[in-house]
Design brief:
Number of strands: 9
Distance between the termini: 66 Å
Radius of gyration: 18 Å
Strand content: 25-35%
Structural class: alpha/beta
Helix content: 25-40%
């Protein structure tokens, strides 16, 4: 059994039992990541009737995302990993959205995918992928930019919540993917776990290091202010 966690957008957790059986829960209440994550994990454990001591590994979304929310998921994953004595692996959160699209039968091999999520400040986080054998292969990014500065390629499918925030830039939903699918708007940790398993089997290292991409909004003062008499 493997535990997946992502707090790059919604607060989300998943338990993956095997190649077929998995369940996830998510809550989109803003700025309550620290309050919501532990109860979601506990509810999943109760639903599946499996104690957390059965967890063999933890996979956490590494962003990119805003500092405070992302930190909650990373700290929780590391703390649980230490308590349970299991490895903690990191996967970029945007990979989960592209992976979901790649699994859809209407999306052909070679199709370019662009994932865009809200970075605030009139900017988006973005990453580009290509569909190969029903999997999303990273091509470029992740990065942060103004919507109009995100590089585009012909024939791409645009995914992620920021597509609807900036329809004048990214256009209408693509008919090849269902616009109502929540896994195409916010990362589902089930996909993060599946991606991690595939990459680990290929010998890749998956450090759980955050992808903040820019400094947090709140920073400590650089020093004492000079007071003039």
């Amino acid at each position: 059994m493997h535990l997946g966690i992502d707090t790059s957008g919604e607060v989300a957790a998943a338990l993956v039992l095997d190649e077929v059986h998995a369940e996830s829960l998510a809550d989109d209440q803003p700025r309550r990541h620290a309050e919501l994550l532990a109860p979601l994990i506990a509810e999943l454990s109760e639903r599946k009737g499996r104690p957390l001591r059965d967890v063999e590994s933890i996979v956490v979304g590494t962003g990119p995302a805003l500092f405070t929310g992302l930190r909650v998921g990373l700290v929780t994953a590391r703390t649980l990993g230490l308590a349970l004595g299991v490895p903690v692996h990191g996967v970029p959160s945007l990979d989960a959205l592209a992976e979901r699209a790649a699994q859809l039968g209407a999306v052909d091999d070679g199709t370019p995918l662009l994932v865009v999520t809200d970075a605030r400040r009139r900017e988006v986080y973005w990453a580009r992928y290509e569909v190969r054998d029903r999997a999303a292969v990273p091509v470029s990014g992740p990065d942060v930019a103004a919507p109009g500065d995100v590089p585009r390629v012909p024939g791409e499918i645009v995914l992620g919540a920021a597509r609807d925030l900036y329809p004048e830039v990214f256009g209408a939903p693509d008919p090849r993917v269902p616009s109502h699918d929540p896994d195409l708007r916010s990362p589902n940790p089930v996909h993060l776990v599946r991606i991690a398993q595939r990459r680990l089997a290929a010998g890749e290292e998956l450090p759980a290091d955050p992808l903040y991409l820019r400094r947090p909004d709140a920073v400590p003062p650089s020093g004492a202010k000079r007071v003039l008499a």
